[in-house]
Amino acid sequence: MSNDIQSNRIEDTISESDTAQLLSNEEASTSNYTQLNRSVYFEQSDEDELTGSHGIRRRQPVQKFKPGSMNILSAKYESLDYDTCENHLLLDEERKRGYAFIIWKDIARWFVILQIGVVTALIAFIIDICIEEFSGIKYKQLKKSVDIFVLEDKLYIPYLLWVLSNICIVFFGSVLVAYIEPVAAGSGIPQVKCYLNGVKVPRVVRIKTLVVKAVGVITAVVGGLAGGKEGPMIHSGAVVAAGISQGKSTTFNKDFKIFHYFREDHEKRDFVSAGAAAGVSAAFGAPIGGVLFSLEEGTSFWNQALTWRTFFGTVVSTFTLNFALSAYHGHPGELSYPGLLNLGKMEPFPFQFYELPVFMLFGAVGGLLGALWNYINYKLAVFRIRYVSAPWLRVVEACLVAATTATCGFLMMFLLNDCRPLGEDPTKNPLQLFCADGEYNALAAIWFQTPEASVRSFLHDPIGSYKPSSLLLFIVCYYLLSTWTFGLAVSSGLFIPNLLTGAAWGRLLAVLIQYMLPNNTINPGKYALVGAAAQLGGVVRMTISLTVIIIETTGQISNALPIIITLVVAKWTGDFFNEGIYDIHIQLAGVPLLGWDPPPLTHTVYASEVMSHPVFTLRTVENVGHVLELLRLVSYNGFPVVDPPLSDEVEVTTYKRLRGLILRSQLIVLLQNKIYNENANTTWSNLNVDMQMFRNEYPRFPSIDELVIEEWEKSCTIDLRPFMNPSPYTLPHRASLPRLFRLFRALGLRHLPIVNDVNEVVGMVTRKDIARYRVWRHRGHMGMEELLLSSE
Ligand code: ATP
Prior knowledge:
Blueprint: H1 2-9, H2 16-29, E1 49-51, E2 56-59, E3 72-74, E4 78-79, H3 88-151, H4 156-180, H5 189-197, E5 199-200, H6 207-222, H7 230-246, E6 248-249, E7 254-255, H8 265-284, H9 287-297, H10 304-328, H11 356-387, H12 391-415, E8 419-421, E9 439-441, H13 442-447, H14 451-460, H15 468-485, H16 495-516, H17 524-540, H18 544-554, H19 560-577, H20 581-588, H21 607-610, E10 618-619, E11 621-623, H22 624-633, E12 638-642, H23 648-651, E13 658-663, H24 664-672, H25 692-697, E14 717-719, E15 731-732, H26 737-747, E16 751-755, E17 761-766, H27 767-771, E18 773-778, E19 781-786, E20 788-790
Parallel strand pairs: 2-19, 3-20, 10-12, 15-16
Antiparallel strand pairs: 1-2, 4-5, 6-7, 8-9, 11-14, 12-13, 16-17, 18-19
Helix pairs in contact: 3-4, 3-6, 3-7, 3-8, 3-10, 4-6, 4-12, 5-20, 6-7, 7-8, 8-9, 8-10, 9-10, 9-18, 11-15, 11-17, 11-19, 11-20, 12-15, 14-16, 15-16, 16-17, 17-19, 18-19
The structure holds adenosine-5'-triphosphate (ATP).
């Protein structure tokens, strides 16, 4: 039988040379469309720039681009598809299951969110306890050794102990990150932001990433690095959400056979938004801040139901963590530990009208310092990409930073004898060092505890607790150390180090203000808090969510106005110089992120200029051999499905009418499951085929080379109609770039076929094509630049 089929249908199989022929025919037929330069590598260099029409900054093509360039988009990032494929199978499923299924699915969603909240909180709990316990042991031992060896004048021994302990702990975490899961490095917020924007960052929501992240953050904080555990919690929440909602683990190859119907990009992305929000909530004890974080920082598509579910997740997360931490600290049921970051209860600080400009000044200082922090970190990141990319070098760098941090702390404690009477600071490990009896070294107290406890000290200690010179040196050291630390091969965030630096300079400014106004009583905590907000706002450029997070963390709504003013001014000031740190890292990675708005003045850039053509299309009933060849020849993930030609003569010279859109993953599943017909006239009628077939493979579909297709099968046909999306969004070729942009941004699209006046496919636009148009601002000038795609 198979031989018969082969002999009948062999002429339909298309070889590579046929496909090339098809390409040249299609190219000939689309030659009336102009295309902007694409797929050439460009290098960032001012001499290469030419200004073209529409204010587009074009560059002369060169064959290579420098690693670390900000003007390249990487083709390795695939897009998520937020648009549900409403094919026959899905409609059939809905019809058969009816309203009961809708209700059941909704209940399941709430249940999944509940689990996400609880599991995220438990992970936060474990991380917190480990950090607290291990740090306690480390600093207690160090204190003991300082107390013993200071008398014998052998302080180099505790110094070496400190350096060695930092290096060993950081070495362990760094090896995990550099060799086992590099995507677990840093806070993970840029990666989560990309995911919520609709870009699949490889391995970002895997269990392995979560484990490395959790262990990595413990080692980073216990190892004394200038990093915090809060950012990684947001990433952890996102991984938990992606894992629980799918009811299976691809890492362990285990399918729990639950929540099948959530196995699609749309549902998964909604859960990840809720997970990230639950992470924020656990990190800061800020349920509303968590919801706002997801809204402000990423999720491009948002709806009422998602708001409610996300809020439920954040509340569950805070409550669970609060319950667990309160029990751990011996006050079960008291619920007095809402988040990992505990800044201590702030008193409402009264402020006068004339103080508002002071808060603005703080915001401006924060914006400036934040922009400089981002600039230094960007330069370091480029240096790392170019020269410190080997894993062993990254481990060495992390150990070097660990040693430098201990050295800085030690030198400051040793050289600045900032003695204060015991009892003023609730520090756990007061060090006497060279101070008189009954006194302790104030700087040692800051260094001999976790950075989070140090923020608390700066916010709550009375005004004379630190010498201005100690504060100044601490600010310079910690500022540089924190910018060096962010981007190392360790899992740690930047919230706490920036809050700490900001609180320190806020306190220093408070001392200055007190000096200038000796008759007034200045509350140093007020300015430390405003400084902390300004510094963090200047680096991350978040406004709404950060305001709410700080208000919720400090438990004072009446402090809202100064914080809002400070954060807004910090953002404006910082934005004048560069982008927020997360956006800088996203651009360095070449991620095709879509901003909030289309580039301005681009209404005269038309879809016909942006689109790719000729387009590789498939017919509604397609030959298996052709599909196979096409998938092997090109790596595109979406193919418009078109009407078959009326006769072979006209096929190659005209465009074909659009009937639908099919994804590479769907084609692979069809080939894998051999959903063929033996000849083109047989209509598709396999009642056993349903959506489950696709969901079983989601999200890691096999590659085309893994499929085993017999020679005779190539002459069979596949009827694509029941599987394709029969009503994809399309735009006419005269649509403008802003229109394309809005469609992609608002609907979370992945592919958009471009059609002519009679609905024939003339081009294809993907989100990478849109993301390539970016606004540039430089020294007061503004325009649009066209980035280029690199294959790496
Ligand atoms: P993604 O990787 O975002 O999931 P994709 O792999 O289909 O989607 P891209 O990698 O974004 O596509 O596209 C690379 C280039 O190929 C883009 O310029 C896009 O316009 C073009 N392209 C995509 N699909 C087709 C197609 N079927 N025919 C011709 N060109 C296409």
